[in-house]
Amino acid sequence: MDTTVNKLILLYIFEQLDIAATSDTLNDMCCSQNSWLSYMTLAEILPELVESGFLTYSETTGTRYYKITQDGRNCLGFFYSMIPSSVRNDISTFIRENRQSYKRSQEYFKDYKKNKDGSYTLLLKISDPTEVKLEIKLKVENHTEAINAFNKWGNSASKVYAELYKILIEGE
Fold it and tell me: What are phi and psi of 159, to 5 degrees?
């Protein structure tokens, strides 16, 4: 496919995704999970779309979050039909089925490290493209507890945030 169609495909992905996305997320979605774009093509057209004003980005804790602009949506609207319908269908289906997973993976950061005393410290965050909303450092006694909490964070983060908000802000 030519460069113009590849750029339109990326704009279509952003429109369907309807959330900001990191380059890692885009690489996973476009290159690893699907063959909509090659890694090199993505690396080439992403900054071009930013430069042209069709995409914009913000940074939080050193990570860039890209999103489509109104100009990007307008451009896509004019040239939408240049994207093969089979590709549009694949993208729409894939994003509908995987959007929440990608959203969680970008918003919920998790890491852990071993301390000198043999315990572990977990770093758990909830972020959006403009700010860190919650950051927790939690010390646990052993590796099993660290892995357990690490693995649960993706599914529990929103509940933890809601409960903390309820207790600390609403006073319940």
Answer: -70, -40
